[in-house]
Amino acid sequence: MKKKKGFFRTIKKVYNYFFRDYKYQKEKKLQRKAAKKASIKPKGFIAKKSGVIIFWVTFGFMFLVVFSTLFSGDSSEAKTKEVSNVKNLAASAEGIQFAKNFTRDYFTWEVSDKGKSVRKETMSKYLADGLDEYAGISFNGLQWNSNFVDSEVKEVVENGENLALITLLTRFELRSVDGNDTKKIEKYFVIPVAYDGKTFGVYELPKFTFIQENTTLQKVVSNKLNRAETSIAGEIKEFLPTFLKSYAEDTKDKLNYILTEENVTDGLQGMMKFSDVKEANVFVGEQPDHYVVFATVIFLEPETNLAIETNYHITVVNRDDRYIVSGINDQENMIIKSDTDEVVDEQGTELEETSENN
Questions:
Q1: Does pLDDT of 39 surpass 60?
Q2: Which DSSP category does 35 fall into?
Q3: How many angstroms separate the Cα of 35 from the Cα of each of 21, 29, 30, 31, 287?
Q4: Does 227 share its domain with 347?
Q5: Counts of helices then strands in the chain (DSSP H, E)
Q6: What's the whole-model pTM score?
Q7: 265 and 332, same domain (yes or no)
Q8: 267-321 pLDDT, tens per residue?
């Protein structure tokens, strides 16, 4: 009986072994079949994939083209702006210094063979080709040596692109060759200066000129202002000392109480002391309840009590029946009147009338 059971047990083991192996092999076969099926691309797959790749390559290329165009456009615009803002270097501080150096050497010479040689060499550092090698000074029969004293700039006129006419008031001293006589000379001297992109140079022989030193200015007046009513002018004149004393002597915080805005002025903050309003003319402003005051004011220097007279134009506002200040020396469109004016038009006549005392 036991032998019989052992036989069946052995048969079962063999059956189970082969059956499991069969199932395992079947599963493996199914997996391989599924993998093979998955590796087969659907119809049109490659074409679609290629289309996607081409699209992104084209898009990237166009993006680079647009970005490059924008960048180069900005660069060109910046270059154009930079070029347009380039100043005339011949009229710059460097050009003026060049002119002063030239003037110093121009008015320094000695009448001798060595002096002539030195001048020729010195002038060659400044003069453009073709100009007189002595810069216009003739040594034939010359009986005076020259020493440069000083110079000051009087006028700078731009004469073209990187060209300028620089006028200096020049002082130099002439000494006779025999040493018996000296003369102090003062001349207005015009130096034509050019800049070639690398260096400065004198492009024409310098010349002498004359400049009117005394001013021809008569006055600067405000445009089309009507006088304020007498009663209002009186009220504003009474307010002015209060404001000007605070303006001269108070801190900014205290001064702000009589200003429309804090940034109107910082005041003098004790640098000067208020003394008096010598004169005040009150005119109607462009906005309602605004008035413009042209005042002559006397301040005192705190340490010495030195009286100093000065002019202010002050914009006063009537706000809630209280006067406060909205501006100091901020008048625009002022008109310059000069004694070189040949004709005084109606506007000029009207303006001249407004300068009378109120």
A1: no
A2: H
A3: 21, 10, 9, 6, 90
A4: yes
A5: 7, 11
A6: 0.56
A7: yes
A8: 999 999 999 999 999 999 888 999 999 999 999 999 888 899 999 989 999 999 9
